[in-house]
Specification:
The complex is a heterodimer of chains A (133) and B (326).
Chain A: H1 2-27, E1 32-39, E2 43-50, E3 58-63, E4 70-74, E5 79-80, E6 84-89, E7 96-103, E8 113-119, E9 126-130
Antiparallel strand pairs in A: 1-2, 2-7, 3-6, 3-8, 4-7, 5-6, 8-9
Chain B: E1 3-5, E2 11-14, H1 17-26, H2 31-38, H3 42-49, E3 55-57, H4 58-68, H5 72-75, H6 116-143, E4 153-157, E5 161-162, E6 168-175, E7 182-189, E8 195-200, E9 205-207, E10 212-219, E11 223-230, E12 238-240, E13 242-247, E14 253-256, E15 258-259, E16 262-265, H7 281-290, H8 301-309, E17 312-316, E18 321-325
Parallel strand pairs in B: 4-15, 5-16
Antiparallel strand pairs in B: 1-2, 2-3, 4-6, 6-11, 7-10, 7-13, 8-11, 9-10, 12-16, 13-14, 17-18
The chains are: A alpha+beta (133), B alpha+beta (326).
Chain lengths: 133, 326
């Protein structure tokens, strides 16, 4: 009985520690999050939210469905391939940043993907996050 | 049968309390008489009869049987008869009532019962105590990022390869965990044959015909020092770096600059870490993280960006320029 209680006590204590660690990791915001949404027929927005330790440089890559005609973007894209556009965003100081994309026809968001790459200031490794819709 | 040997303890027997009571009452004996005969208190006898102590010392069991004028077996619990859960406790060492008067006026020490919830409660209390400890440790871990190792450090970052004649940046990160400003001298010996193109911040002194450079000042927070060098265009080989950081004024401490200490000439851009003739997303992000874009004139970020945007590059030694593949 005593051994069973000791085991149970250890399990409870460990579970509490794991729970607290999980709570801390959840409560700490990701440095970069992104949202993809539309307004009107032809305007699409990529809204970036940054939290400390926020990177100052980001690479945003948007994969587009075939045949989409990109009219303009603000800021202007850095690179455009057949089915993707890339932005290199430097010296970002604001906590939020929005990229506007105007297309010739309504963009199918279900067939679009946006990936954001940045260097994590704590670990030094390059992270990639995907914009949610 | 009903004999039990508890590890490290005396031989115990399991008695049937109701039988004990029945025999005692049949024979008109009082609890006081039994208690006196067995040399225990009347409370103990009462507990035996109420099955609160179903396991007793065999020695006491024999005395009890003698007092009741029956064989021991008659008062033992029948085989297969399990004591109920609430009566399953074993009488503790106090059973003997050593030297105790049989008088009921002297109470037995309260029985020490094993309470399973006690250790659970302890675990929960421990867990609750962990919460503030976690809060404090997480605060220091995540929100006090300036509080790092109490030791001041200087670390050099330089590409392991470069193109002869082209600018090669050398970064030195100095961290000072102290809150008060610390005076320092950071000195780097320039690799032989190289010339210095620029520094940031401005160097305090240039020694011995450009053989070394040094910065002098006070440092409070982590700081970045940069210098850009170039070898002659026809240079082939490896260049070595070394430097030192001297801190404090009264009791000066000198440490070596750690980190990368050499670079070899080749045909790949210094930012092309994996030498695959491309500048990847990771590589450009690393450079932009090291060197704030637009701050350092001698680091051609525009060229770096053009290579990144292209499908690759080739160094043309005859023209001393990069050919960018589209």
């Amino acid at each position: 009985m005593a051994q069973k209680n000791t085991t149970l006590s250890i399990v409870i204590t460990l579970a509490s520690v794991i729970f607290l660690l999980a709570l801390v990791s959840i409560s700490r915001a990701e440095p970069v999050t992104a949202r993809l949404y539309q307004s009107g027929k032809t305007m699409t927005f990529i809204e970036l939210s940054l939290a400390p330790p926020a990177p100052a440089t980001l690479i945003v890559e948007m994969k587009l469905p075939a045949g989409v005609d990109v009219v303009r973007t603000v800021p202007h894209f850095s690179k455009q391939n057949k089915n993707s556009i890339k932005w290199l965003l430097k010296n970002i100081k604001d906590r939020s940043f929005t990229i506007q994309l105007e297309t010739g026809t309504k963009l199918d968001l279900g067939s679009s993907q946006v990936h954001i790459r940045y260097r994590n200031r704590d670990s030094g490794s390059v992270q990639e996050v995907q914009a949610h819709q | 049968m009903s004999d039990e040997m508890y590890p490290g303890g005396p031989v115990m027997v399991k008695i049937d309390g109701s039988k004990v009571r029945q025999i005692r009452e049949q024979k008109g004996l009082t609890q006081l008489y039994i208690a006196t005969a067995v040399e225990v208190t009347t409370d103990t006898v009462s507990r035996w009869e109420n099955k609160r102590y179903p396991s007793i010392k065999k020695e006491n069991g024999l005395k009890l049987a003698e007092a009741l004028e029956v064989p021991l077996e008659e008062i033992l619990e029948s085989a297969g008869q399990e004591p109920s859960a609430e009566n399953s406790s074993v009488q503790p060492a106090g059973e003997k009532d050593s030297g105790a008067s049989p008088s009921p006026a002297k109470p037995d020490p309260p029985p020490r019962q094993v309470r399973p919830y006690l250790s659970l409660r302890t675990a929960l209390l421990l867990s609750l105590m962990l919460i503030p400890l976690f809060g404090i440790s997480m605060y220091f871990l995540f929100f006090q990022e300036d509080i790092v190792s109490p030791q001041i450090t200087a670390r050099r970052t330089v590409s392991p390869h470069f193109i002869a004649g082209q600018p090669l940046p050398v970064f030195i990160h100095v961290s000072n965990p102290a809150e008060n400003p610390v005076s320092f001298i950071l000195r780097e010996n320039l690799p032989p044959g190289t010339k210095i193109l620029s520094t940031d911040p401005e160097i305090s002194d240039k020694h011995k015909k450009n053989k070394s450079i040094q910065w002098l000042g006070n440092i409070t927070r982590p700081a970045l020092f940069l210098y850009v060098i170039a070898t002659p265009e026809n240079f082939v080989g490896t260049i070595s770096f070394d430097g030192m950081l001297k801190i404090g004024s009264t009791e000066a401490t000198e440490i070596s600059v750690s980190g990368a200490s050499s670079a070899t000439s080749g045909l790949h851009h210094w930012a092309d870490k994996d030498r695959d003739n491309r500048i990847s997303d990771e590589e450009i992000l690393t450079i932009y993280d090291l060197a704030e874009p637009g701050r350092y004139d001698d680091i051609d970020m525009d060229q770096l960006e053009e290579i990144w945007l292209g499908d690759g590059y080739v160094w043309q030694p005859d023209k001393q320029q990069f050919s960018i593949l589209e």
